[in-house]
Automatic annotation (TrEMBL):
Keywords of the record: Membrane, Transmembrane, Transmembrane helix
Protein name according to UniProt: Uncharacterized protein
Transmembrane segments: 47-74, 94-113, 125-144, 150-171, 202-221, 233-257
Taxonomic lineage from the root: Bacteria, Bacillati, Bacillota, Bacilli, Lactobacillales
Organism for this UniProt entry: Streptococcus salivarius
Length: 294
């Protein structure tokens, strides 16, 4: 029996994505809102605004994070810093340039998907998925540098590992949910799946406690922290970063992924979805592709 996949559903089964209790309404509202804005695509005004907003809202924030890190490492007075920086700079400037190149390459590759019905998903992928992942990576690398004095390398690895395991657990959870939604059945976990899920649940549940205990232990037996206020402030900021990471990951996994999956199935079954949405050939594919479809 062929193993079911979230990418191999039939057209009829893919329509079940609209019934997702978590992302269904968000996907519909987001799609309808994007449709209203599509009428401005291709105008000179839209291109000018696109360039300005890209510089201000995408390139700008990522550059500022690296610039702040560069200032702290090479220009700030170490005596003015509450905690000592990492001995290794985890966020050199080349990380920003590599992220920018990858982001631009994704845009260039995405140009081959230029049918009208997929443009909405293409644009939102660049802004609400790839950009956010790029931003999140830079923020976490900055965090590694800032909290080295409080954590140490072992503590930082434990903290980032906790975030990673939480993300993996959410991906597995949402994938199982989408499989059940697409095929209208309850998937039976294999022994391996059950083992992994138990491990992930344990790490997610108790990992934060272990990290917190490590911080307290390191603070008590280390002179890298100047006073108790540093400990309280450090733990507070750390907790906020943990919550921020999980919230962003949850948004991408539970809302954006099902939404982009709908775009994937529209690309896979374009004619079926065109008929289902009652669109003309020109409305669905655009003027450039009108002659290719009758």
């Amino acid at each position: 029996m062929k193993k079911k996949s979230i990418f191999s559903a039939s057209f009829e089964e893919s329509l079940n994505l609209l019934d997702d209790s978590v992302s269904g309404k968000f996907a519909q509202d987001n799609y309808q809102d994007a449709l209203k804005k599509e009428k401005y695509r291709g105008t000179l005004k839209s291109y000018v605004w696109l360039v300005i907003l890209t510089i201000l809202l995408i390139i700008g924030p990522n550059w500022l994070i690296v610039a702040l890190n560069e200032y702290l490492f090479y220009h700030a007075n170490p005596k003015d810093l509450t905690v000592g920086l990492s001995e290794i700079n985890f966020l050199p400037y080349w990380v920003f340039w590599m992220g920018l190149v990858i982001w631009l390459l994704l845009i260039i590759v995405g140009k081959r998907f230029n049918q009208q019905f997929i443009l909405i998903y293409r644009g939102q992928f660049h802004f609400m998925v790839s950009f956010i992942i790029w931003l999140l990576i830079e923020l976490n690398l900055l965090l590694l540098n800032l909290f080295y004095g409080l954590f140490g390398y072992l503590g930082m690895a434990a903290f980032e590992g906790l975030i990673l395991f939480t993300i993996i657990y959410m991906i597995r959870d949402k994938s199982t949910s989408l499989l059940n939604l697409l095929y209208g059945s309850t998937e039976i976990e294999s022994p391996t799946d059950r083992l992994f899920n138990r491990v992930f649940r344990f790490i997610v549940k108790y990992g934060g406690i272990v990290v917190a205990l490590w911080i307290i232990f390191r603070t008590i037996f280390s002179d890298s922290i100047r006073n108790a206020d540093s400990l309280v402030g450090g733990i507070s900021v750390l907790f906020l970063f943990l919550v921020f990471n999980i919230l962003i990951a949850a948004f991408e996994i539970y809302f954006m992924f099902p939404y982009m999956l709908q775009g994937y199935y529209k690309w896979k079954y374009p004619e079926e979805y065109r008929d289902w949405e009652d669109k003309s050939v020109e409305e669905w594919y655009g003027k450039k592709h009108k002659g290719k479809f009758k």
